[in-house]
Design a protein that fits this description.
This protein is 16% helix and 39% strand. The protein is built from ten helices and 30 strands.
């Protein structure tokens, strides 16, 4: 698959549309596969430098029956000055129109990695024209489809190669994060600069470079291919899928090509985004289709990061396409990048993160969350985890489609270790009655700081039976120690900690996420001694050892969601708890026992 994806910096969130007129050209006649013979010669058109369309030679080698996603493929050999300069077909040439005797045959589309790059396959134009007969996309209606786009050739199949992603606007470590997030899509990012100043883009026409853009703004990402055919405002390109979403809503842009880069696997075009000119609304086996002067819906996101040590503030604004699978990763990676640029470093620290996600068809219409995170390794990675989870919950929920209208993220970060350990917890009363209020004084020892005390007021459940009652005093990011000690193997522990939405309404899922404990909370709750009774007996024999969970501090700072599963169990049993918030991530727990007595008349 010959295309490239890149990220480019823009400086405003407003959807800027530049009207680009269509080139005036005579629509060519078309030649069907049945009329194509071995030995026929023709030309193909593409851009390998700037915006200039150039020709290269094509010779038909055969017809590959039923080997393409939509039907036959045409096997060809390419040659000429352009091919000599690029050392064969490269990523970004996908969609290059092929003409024989002046008639349009189809689009350059496939090749074999690590093989002769001058042998390629062409998707017939007849199969691509069918894209225009499919009903157009509506907002947020992307179909989730398999990403396999290769012709069926067994072990020798011509496969879509991992795409070269031209990236600017992301920090170095954000690039690494993006690469990991996009591995399932065979998208590989490479950093690149912006287009030369003063570039004027000519009207789109067959052979022009065209971009399929996923993100616009201070971070931008697009796949670059070639226009195959145009009719009025309608356009066909690529000759193969981009992500094979079916109905889609991607930004369509023109593009500028810096140069081509040769490689052992395959070469690729180094390109940059141009002006927004339309929408790509079909992404299927035989190619992509779109319309000029029609535009997709967007998800606007604004990010504000303040580094307290450098007294540095960094802001970014981007627009994301409405793709349910990609948006969470792209959004989280962008936030991580802005943090890294504001800090001008990678390493330990504490971050206070708040975000608000406004959406239609979501209970409450606004999802808000604030939390405190610490990491001894990379505070940026720890800080974006909960935001990534929130976006994934909304975009991937099983209840109904959610249309995100606005995303705002605010981060305050420093290199301090703002953690604190519980030294002692004391109850104001050692003997209580059901319904009584108990003041629990918690002594904390901040990292490299003086001891401080906080008081949490806990109410004894009215149905609490007489006898000893154990109270768990812990940080909001902690799983109660007594529960961890009951689990002896990773499998049982995984089941205990798994964050599930089973048997919950959408409103309950959103509320549970928004209101769950925070890492900087001190929690006082009645220990549910029957919580693990449902686990197999052989999981209750020993403490967690190697292969189980990481140390307690890692639980507190890296798995804030883990307590949700425990909390759901406690909620089912109507357990009572109380909390207060602090300025520190509370990284351990303790227990205390009080005696519950009944009135004599009872």
């Amino acid at each position: 698959m010959y295309w490239s994806l890149r990220i480019l910096k823009w400086f405003q969130i407003v959807l800027v549309v530049t009207f680009v007129p269509l080139a005036a050209y005579a629509a060519p006649d078309m030649m069907s596969v049945d009329n194509i013979k071995i030995g026929m010669h023709g030309i193909a058109k593409t851009v390998v430098l700037g915006t200039k369309i150039e020709d290269f030679d094509v010779e038909v080698l055969g017809i590959m029956k039923n080997q393409g996603p939509a039907g036959d493929l045409i096997l060809v050999r390419v040659s000429g000055d352009v091919i000599d300069r690029t050392d064969g077909i490269v990523q970004g040439m996908s969609g290059s129109p092929v003409y024989i005797d002046g008639k349009l045959v189809g689009a350059i589309a496939y090749g074999w990695p690590l093989k002769d790059h001058k042998i390629t396959m062409v998707t017939p134009i007849g199969d691509m024209l069918k894209l225009w007969n499919i009903p157009g996309a509506s907002a947020g209606s992307s179909e989730s489809q398999p990403l396999s786009t290769a012709p069926n050739q067994g072990d020798a199949q011509a496969v879509p190669e991992a795409a070269s992603l031209m990236v600017s606007g992301l920090s170095e470590h954000a690039m690494d994060m993006l690469a990991n997030q996009l591995k399932p899509y065979q998208l590989v990012p490479y950093a690149i600069g912006e287009a030369p100043a003063g570039i004027e883009f000519p009207p789109l026409e067959p052979g022009s470079s065209v971009g399929v853009q996923l993100v616009r703004g201070d971070v931008s990402m697009e796949a670059i291919g070639t226009v195959t055919y145009m009719e009025g405002n309608k356009i066909l390109a690529f000759g193969h899928p981009f992500l094979k979403r079916g109905k889609a809503e991607y930004f369509m842009t023109n593009a500028y090509i810096f140069t081509t880069v040769n490689g052992l696997d395959t070469g690729f075009k180094l390109g940059t985004t141009g002006n927004l000119v339309g929408v790509i609304n079909q992404d299927r086996g035989s190619g992509i289709a779109g319309e000029v002067a029609s535009y997709p819906a967007i998800i606007p996101m604004s990010i504000h990061v303040q580094d307290k040590n450098l007294e540095n503030t960094r802001e970014a604004n981007v627009q994301l396409v409405r793709d349910e699978q990609l948006v969470p990763a792209l959004a989280a990676t962008t936030v991580f990048s802005v943090m890294e640029k504001a800090m001008d470093r990678v390493g330990p620290g504490t971050a206070k993160v708040s975000f608000a996600i406004s959406a239609r068809n979501m209970p409450g219409e606004v999802l808000k969350r604030e939390n405190l995170f610490y990491s001894a390794g990379n505070v940026g990675e720890a800080a974006v985890g909960e935001f990534l989870e929130a976006m994934s919950i909304l975009m991937g929920n099983k209840y109904n489609q959610v249309d995100i209208m606005d995303v705002k993220v605010n981060v305050s970060v420093s290199d301090e270790q703002r953690t604190a350990s519980i030294v002692e917890a004391r109850a104001s009363e050692t003997t209580v009655r059901p319904g009584d209020k108990v003041s629990v004084t918690v002594q904390l020892k901040p990292f490299r700081g003086e001891k401080i005390t906080r008081v949490v007021n806990f109410t004894v459940p009215k149905d609490q039976p007489a006898g000893p009652m154990t109270l768990e005093v812990r940080g909001g990011g902690m799983i109660p120690l007594a529960q961890l000690l009951k689990a002896a193997n990773p499998e049982a522990l995984t089941q205990l900690l798994k964050y599930q939405h089973k048997d919950k309404t959408f409103a309950e899922v959103i509320s549970g996420f928004s209101n769950r404990e925070r890492n900087n909370d001190i929690i006082v709750e009645k220990m549910d001694m029957q919580l693990l009774d449902t686990l197999p007996q052989d999981t209750k024999k020993a403490p967690v050892k190697e292969g189980g969970l990481e140390p307690e501090q890692d639980l507190a700072v890296n798995t804030p969601q883990s307590k949700a599963a425990v909390g759901s169990k406690a909620k089912d049993k109507k357990s009572e708890k109380a909390f207060i918030s602090t300025d520190f991530i509370v990284d351990n727990d303790t227990q205390l026992i009080i005696n519950v007595v009944k009135d004599s008349k009872e």
